[in-house]
Amino acid sequence: MKKEYRIFISILALIFSIGATCIGFGLIGGSSLKFGMKFVCDFFFLMQTVATCWVAIELLKK
């Protein structure tokens, strides 16, 4: 795969990942869950974005 495509795919994946995290935060913030459960759900949304960053970094190292 060409380097330009790797960069494009990585940036696109990060944009979608950050968007999904923001939507998830908004949905969880507006819910009637207790604080502990909100924290756990927010943690999983945030970890999804971090995992996408790790994959993008590894893809660009090659």
TrEMBL record:
Keywords: Membrane, Transmembrane, Transmembrane helix. The keyword Transmembrane applies. The keyword Membrane applies. The chain crosses the membrane at residues 7-29, 35-57. This is Lipoprotein. It comes from the Bacteria.
